[in-house]
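User: quick one, fold this
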Amino acid sequence: MRIQNIFGTEFSGTIGKSMIASSWKGIPYVRTYTVPKDPKTEFQLEHRALWARAVGAWHALEPDERKRYNKAARRMTGYNLFIKEYIKAVQQGREP
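Assistant:
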């Protein structure tokens, strides 16, 4: 969502390093920019590594395999379906 000021200038996303323009349930707003916290806990690092492996596995798929995922996906992309299934398999202790 774009935010428009009284001069007609539109903003969306980060405005410098001081504000962020966005929307919530269709209501536009501007808020103060805060530096995202990144405590780099062991769990976070493991989960990020899992996501990186899942994305790498998607990129390693042959085009025909990607097409099959795109056809099978409902209300999401084939990429999202693949990542979801990959992570679920790993969390259940199965080979993705």
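User: anything notable?
Assistant: The mean pLDDT is 88.
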